[in-house]
Design goal:
The chain has one domain. The chain is mainly beta. The strands form two sheets. Strands 1, 3, 4, 6, 7, 8, 9, 10, 11 and 12 form a ten-stranded antiparallel sheet that branches. A two-stranded antiparallel sheet has the order 2-5. The protein is about 10% helix and about 35% strand. It contains three helices and twelve strands. The termini are far apart.
């Protein structure tokens, strides 16, 4: 079931309120958050020269994701009300890259190059099987604030992954994943959410190789 709804209602599941990189892949109107772009621009404006050389570490996320089976687009629900169908292992690798000091491109602009080492390492239950053979084409990496990623799965849809609520103290983060046509059009049969254990730096790279 593909449903169109306010992005805030759904993305509250992932603890985020904005999506910056998903536009309409059919070529019509763009749906993205001006607030998020403004926030990113403010952060970029405050970046010093030393930030230019800063590198984000390699990160490996070992996740346990459940499919949200009772999402109701017609009412407000808190995450505590969601019922999850099954538990699925999912493993994702984010390589070390330079820290972003500029705003992300508009969702209708050509994508920036994505490091090919950015990849799904394990998906034994096939919850992202439609993304197999489709590398991530857009990644907005503001770790540890959030990471947004898409991999095209058709001419009009993408696999959307949002990593948020990163806790350095607990070496943990949350992940939200779904199929999306744009920032407010989601597939309710494929809404996945859960917690991830995070490995950083050399440990992450060694586990990914």
């Amino acid at each position: 079931m593909i449903v169109r709804l306010g992005a805030a209602a759904l993305l509250a599941t992932a603890g985020v309120t904005t999506v910056t990189l998903v536009g309409n892949r059919g070529g019509a109107s763009t749906k993205h958050s001006a607030a998020a772009v403004a926030q990113d621009q403010a952060g970029a404006a405050g970046a010093g020269e030393s930030d230019l050389a800063k590198m984000l570490p390699a990160r490996l996320l070992d996740c346990k994701l459940g499919r949200i089976s009772n999402f109701d687009p017609n009412k407000e629900q808190s995450p505590s009300e969601y019922i999850f169908d099954g538990v699925h292992s999912f493993r994702l690798f984010l390589p070390s890259i330079p820290a972003r000091t500029t705003p992300p491109p508009d969702s209708t602009s050509p994508p920036e190059p994505v490091d090919p080492k950015t990849r799904i390492l394990a998906d034994p239950d096939g919850i992202a099987s439609n993304a197999v053979g489709h590398p991530f084409d857009r990644v907005v990496d503001f770790w540890p604030q959030r990471v947004e990623m898409t991999a095209p799965v058709s001419d009009v849809a993408a696999k959307l992954v949002i990593i948020d609520q990163v806790s350095a103290a607990q070496n943990a983060a949350t992940m939200f994943m779904t199929n999306a046509n744009d920032a407010v059009t989601f597939d309710l049969k494929h809404l996945y959410y859960g917690r991830c254990a995070v490995s950083i730096g050399e440990a992450a790279t060694a586990s990914a190789n």
